[in-house]
Specification:
With 186 residues, this protein is mainly alpha-helical. It has two domains: 110 residues, Rna Polymerase Sigma Factor, Chain: A (Orthogonal Bundle), CATH 1.10.1740; 66 residues, Arc Repressor Mutant, subunit A. It is built from ten helices and no strands. Helix 4 crosses helix 9. It starts with a helix and ends with a helix. The N terminus is likely disordered.
């Protein structure tokens, strides 16, 4: 189906039919988006699953069902932000504990996915580390822009910010990446 036909067909579909189609067409890219933000494959998959469940429950409330993918992206970005906030709270709490208690609890460990191994190659690893060093909003804007190839308007919608803010964050993020690259050169 052409994109326009899909959007038109989505309007007539039930929640089950629409989400089945959206899942088949976009699950991998949504998981990748979340992974680039949270850097954990299992958490990324759970975040995307939660977004699909939330959309299913709210399908009847969508005024423009053809915007379902944009809504899913927004849910994934917000879910990823929530994971990062929770992680920050956990890490602050762990730092406040005595060393012996921290040692007993162990560190968070996850088995690296095949995707993680691929990203760990030299260039990909450096890029991911550089992205991780950026402020959250710049990292989100650059990920949506260069990974999902979204327009400024689509990024603004996904992040619920103005298109002008998208431009500013993209510009600042790219400048920061360039300056990091210059520092890394011998």
């Amino acid at each position: 189906m052409a994109p326009r036909e899909v959007a038109t067909a989505t309007v007539r579909w039930s929640a089950d039919d629409a989400l089945t189609h959206l899942y088949a067409a976009h699950w991998h890219s949504l998981v990748r988006l979340s992974y680039l933000l949270v850097r954990d494959q299992q958490v990324a998959e759970e975040t995307v699953q939660d977004a699909f469940v939330a959309m299913h429950h709210r399908w009847h409330l969508l005024r423009e069902p053809e915007q379902a993918l944009a809504y899913l992206r927004r849910c994934v970005v917000n879910g990823s932000r929530s994971v990062l906030r929770h992680r920050g709270v956990e890490e602050r709490h762990l730092r406040s504990l005595p060393d012996d208690t921290r040692r007993d609890l162990g560190s968070r460990s996850t088995v690296a996915s095949a995707e993680q191994h691929a990203l760990d190659h030299d260039t990909g690893d450096r890029l991911c580390q550089a992205l991780a060093a950026l402020p959250r909003r710049q990292r989100e804007v650059l990920t949506l822009r260069y990974y999902l190839d979204l327009s400024e308007a689509q990024i603004a919608d996904a992040l619920q910010i103005s298109p002008g803010s998208v431009k500013v964050h993209a510009h600042r993020g790219l400048e920061a990446l360039r300056s990091m690259e210059e520092v890394d050169r011998p």
